[in-house]
Design brief:
The protein is of the alpha/beta class. The chain has one domain: Rossmann fold (3-Layer(aba) Sandwich). The protein has a seven-stranded mixed sheet with strand order 3-2-1-4-5-7-6, sandwiched between helices. Helix 4 packs parallel to helix 5. The longest helix has 14 residues. The N terminus is likely disordered.
């Protein structure tokens, strides 16, 4: 099956639900003051990533960065790389904007929109060095499994956006979802597993709030690392 498999039957099924949530005064303030500088508006137009970041450094896309703590830490520790965070929850966007300003980061941009639409309409093919997907919503009820992000044919879209040799790194504390994602990524033609099975803990990844909660609930943490195959010469 080719990586151009039609995604239309999943396009209207969102991988998220906008839940009512309160923003702190600090998050509201940071959003109002800083969003114009660091947030990119959604548009059905392919981005020029070199122009956006004003350099040619590799770009990592994080889908669903939550409150943005891990995003900010990783970006702070890797100033030679660019990070594009996609998130639909405004409180998290406000929190990350505050972190960007507090840490003096210049290598982070944010798009506040549905990730699938952003990938389809804004991200060039073969342009992303890495996808970070940390603790995505597991949608545990069977009738909601169609909402899971890491499943085919969505994985075909992710693979298409990766640059050859780039990686997709997913972490989950929900074992059934991790196992399903492992199967779906393995079945994606353009991807190959970096390891024999699940990946070992990546020491450079900061612990997230969801990870702490998962461990408190005695959930095992599963990591997946898949690489986009390089075309043979």
């Amino acid at each position: 099956m080719q990586d151009t498999e039609d995604t239309s039957h999943l396009r209207e099924v969102h991988t998220y639900v906008l839940r009512a949530g309160r923003m702190t005064e600090a998050q509201k303030r940071d959003y109002v003051i800083h969003s114009a500088r660091w947030c990119l508006p959604f548009a059905e137009q392919i981005l020029n990533l070199v122009d956006i970041f004003e350099n040619t450094s590799p770009v990592t896309v994080e889908i669903g960065f939550g409150m943005g703590r891990a995003t900010a830490i990783i970006a702070d520790e890797n100033p030679d790389k660019n990070y594009l965070g996609i998130e639909v929850h405004r409180a998290g966007v406000g929190r990350l904007l505050g972190e960007i300003e507090r840490r003096g980061l210049t290598n982070v941009r944010i798009i506040e929109h549905d990730a699938i639409e952003v990938l389809e309409h804004m991200i060039p093919d073969n342009s992303v060095q890495a996808f970070h997907i940390f603790f995505p919503d597991p949608w545990p009820k069977k009738r909601h499994h169609k909402r899971r992000l890491v499943q085919r044919p969505r994985t075909n879209l992710l693979a298409r956006k990766l640059a050859p040799g780039g990686y997709l790194y997913m972490v989950s504390d929900w074992e059934p979802y991790a196992e399903e994602a492992f199967f779906e990524l393995t079945a994606t033609p353009q991807l190959e597993n970096k390891y024999e099975g699940f990946a070992p803990r990546q020491s450079w990844r900061p612990e997230t709030r969801f990870e702490v909660k998962g461990k408190e609930a005695h959930h095992s943490i599963h990591e997946l690392m898949f690489i986009k195959k390089t075309p043979e010469a």
